[in-house]
Amino acid sequence: MNKISRFYGIIKYEINSNLDKRYFMKNNENNPSQKIAALYYIGSLCFYIAAIINLTNNKIINNDSNGYFLRAQADAWGNEGSNGGKVTLNLTNQEIDGNIGVDEISSLNMNMQSSSFKGIIDAKDGKVTLTLYKSSTITLTGNSYVTSLTNEDSSNSNINLNGYKLYVGGSEYKI
């Protein structure tokens, strides 16, 4: 992923204090004038930052020109190699349509309960831990990469490869 210094959306961290963790929670947001506009961005000017994002039953409109819902990556600012992000994304009764990008110095823990994700997980060099409850589904729109996958559905019927490949820990995941 290319570094970019401008992201638009509901969360953009460019902070210069020693705050090391941010929290964001949004529940039951379906008012057309108050819809969440993706994209989330986690990164910092000078140091590694952590964020916990809890989303429950929201209507999300993804207006990102590259189709990204979330990016956890270094910014063009700060010290090279130490300006990434650490994100925990908790989804409950949530539909996500958009890509996720995680660079080599960032990480994402993504927990899905009664939720759906449609997109690409672009984390070939990053660290992504994906936990799917039986009631959740993912549908790939391109080859995707995660470090680890825990799926409550042992039949994996909640994973739709859609003709693409899912790599878990560097190996192709077979369904």
Detailed description of the structure:
With 175 residues, this protein is mainly β. It has one domain. It contains no helices and 20 strands. The strands form five sheets. A six-stranded parallel β-sheet has the order 2-5-8-11-14-17, with no helix packed on it. It has a five-stranded parallel β-sheet with strand order 1-4-7-10-13, with no helix packed on it. Strand 19 (166-168) and strand 20 (171-172) form a beta hairpin. Mean pLDDT is 76; it is low at 1-25 and 31-48.
Q: Pairing-aware structural class of the strands and helices? A: mainly beta
> What fraction of the residues are assigned to beta strands by DSSP?
over 45%
Strands side by side in the biggest sheet: 2-5-8-11-14-17
Helix content: under 10%
Distance between the termini: 28 Å
Average per-residue pLDDT, rounded, comes to 76
Order of helices and strands: EEEEEEEEEEEEEEEEEEEE
Give a quick account of the main beta sheet: strands, pairing sense, barrel closure. Answer: 6 strands, parallel
- Whole-number tally of structural domains: 1
Spans of at least 5 consecutive residues with low confidence: 1-25, 31-48
Supply the number of helical segments. 0
- Total beta-strand segments: 20
Q: Shape from CA axes?
A: globular
- What Rg is obtained from the alpha carbons, in whole angstroms? 15 Å
